[in-house]
Write a structure and sequence with these properties.
Length: 179
């Protein structure tokens, strides 16, 4: 088994086709071999070779038995806020320069560290806003900040193959944006 092929990412679905996680092809292959999962989609012509056989490389697998999984919360970190906002300033829309995280309602005015109050901001807009509210600074948000879902996070955090898009509620004809 080739090291690079066996370490490729595979989308794992629950029995009801709900996205669970991303695992390696090695883990997916073992789950299939143990009879715990089935292959739903293959990776374009790639194979896993053993001593006596070749198997198609999985791209999407589905578990045979439903697994109850606790609600997955995305941790509130600087990196995750920037990822949620696509590293785009939520005031002016630029993607240039180093990005910071800005409190929509400043901490000095009671603003808290939570998903709905933190946005990605370029240095210029962050300095322009300063320790003021949106109204006081004359800035407007391009998009209201919200807590991302686990599926949204998979969509934004990974290189999505065409085979995954139907299972992540993405339309391959619109450049990978959610529908």
């Amino acid at each position: 088994m080739t090291g690079t092929v066996i370490n490729r990412s595979v989308l794992m679905l629950n029995q009801n086709y709900e996205p669970l996680t991303i695992c390696t092809a090695r883990r997916a292959f073992l789950l299939m071999f143990q009879g715990k999962a089935e292959m739903i989609e293959t990776a374009d012509g790639l194979k896993i070779h053993t001593v006596s056989r070749s198997y198609p490389l999985p791209s999407v697998v589905r578990l045979w038995k439903f697994r109850k999984v606790p609600y997955k919360r995305i941790m509130l970190t600087r990196k995750n806020v920037l990822t949620r906002d696509d590293n785009r300033c939520q005031y002016c829309g630029t993607m240039r320069g180093p990005m910071t995280v800005d409190h929509v309602v400043p901490k000095t005015m009671g603003g808290m560290d939570h998903w709905e109050n933190l946005v990605c901001s370029c240095g210029r807009c962050n300095n322009r806003k300063g320790d003021r509210t949106l109204e006081q600074s004359g800035l407007k948000l391009r998009r209201k900040p919200t807590r991302p879902t686990y599926i949204t996070f998979i969509q934004r955090n990974n290189e999505i193959s065409a085979e995954w898009k139907p299972y992540l509620f993405m339309d391959s004809s619109n450049g990978g944006q959610t529908t």
